[in-house]
Amino acid sequence: MEFLKGFLHILVPLFIIVDPIGCIPLFLGLTCNLPPSKRQKIALKASLVAAFVLSAFALLRDRLLLYFNISIASFRVAGGLILLLIALQMIQAQPRATKSRPEEEEESRQKEDVATVPLGVPILAGPGAITTVLVLTAGQASFEIRLKVILAVILVAFITFITFVYANRIAKMLGQTGTNLFVRIMGLILAVISVEYMARGLGELFPGLVK
């Protein structure tokens, strides 16, 4: 039961920040002229690329932070702030600046393979998702935590693949209003989670704040 509770605590923010439902319009826009079989291959490759990148950061953990002499507490505060800004954009149903720029998406449409860039990185495994993985694993010596994060990454990648395969049906079923509503609800949950990250980091930086 404890394992499942800890796993869900990792899975929920990761799923929200990757945001497969919110990525459907981007996926459809980048693959609009392709046959279904090609779309499915791109969906699979993009999901695998994102899973590989995020799993690599989960294994690296806080080694990157130590290399730059950054404290884990400071990173939690900064990471929480980044996630809060993303959450505010989601609540307003705005395109996220951390995903990809319009000119990058337009350039990608001219390429045959859009699975790795920009779908895999940075649309799925973008700065927000990487920050989430690092915040979840930083300072955690237990291999169990890393295992939970990697399992969550794999599950989110699988959900993303299924979402992209049925992207047309989901888009028609939800419509723009339904998609925006879903993204807003996820953004609200992410905002709460990001505040918890910042509060924990501030508590470690300034122990006097915590009574």
Automatic annotation (TrEMBL):
Top-rank taxon: Bacteria
PANTHER family xrefs: UPF0056 MEMBRANE PROTEIN YHCE
Cell location: Cell membrane
Annotated Pfam families: MarC
Transmembrane segments annotated in the record for this chain: 6-30, 42-60, 66-91, 119-143, 149-169, 181-199
GO cellular component, one term: plasma membrane
Protein's UniProt name: UPF0056 membrane protein
Membrane topology summary: Multi-pass membrane protein
Signal peptide: none
Keyword Cell membrane among UniProt keywords: yes
Alphabetically ordered keywords of this record: Cell membrane, Membrane, Transmembrane, Transmembrane helix
Record carries keyword Hydrolase: no
InterPro entries for the chain: Multi_antbiot-R_MarC
Family assignment from sequence similarity: Belongs to the UPF0056 (MarC) family.
